[in-house]
Amino acid sequence: MLKNDMRTALPMAAMDDIPDAKPDAKSITGLVKQSGRIVGYQLSDGSTVTKENGVAMAKNGDIKGVGIAHRKDSQYLKSLPDGTETNNLGNLPSVSTSELQ
Q: Which of 26, 57, 69, 96 has the smallest CB count inside 10 Å?
């Protein structure tokens, strides 16, 4: 296996699901955090959704560039590896909002 294939294969194997995104799917542009924990996502249309709603939207193909993983009983979104570090969820800016959908 080539080195670049290995860099992609390992993160992809850690995901439970990689949904097919619809052509009009939104992307995640920011993370909503409370006390340092991700509680939601800001989307490319400016809206914000809870972490749970973001997972549901991704499963329906409404968010692109992400896969679904879990930790204990909680599901969350992970960036699909594409060789670009700047669009990884962990590198996105934190946003504050009082209205999560």
A: 96
Q: Would the pTM of this model clear 0.85, i.e. be above it?
A: no
pLDDT digits (tens, 9 = 90+) for 87-97: 788 888 888 76
The per-residue b/e assignment along 79-90, b for 16 or more CB within 10 angstroms, e otherwise, is: bbbeeeeeeebe
Identify residue 66 by its one-letter amino acid code: V
For residues 53 and 101, what is the distance between their CA atoms, to the nearest angstrom? 7
Rounded Cα–Cα distance for residues 76 and 7 (Å) = 21
Who's near 29: CB < 8 A, 6+ residues apart? 42, 43, 44, 92
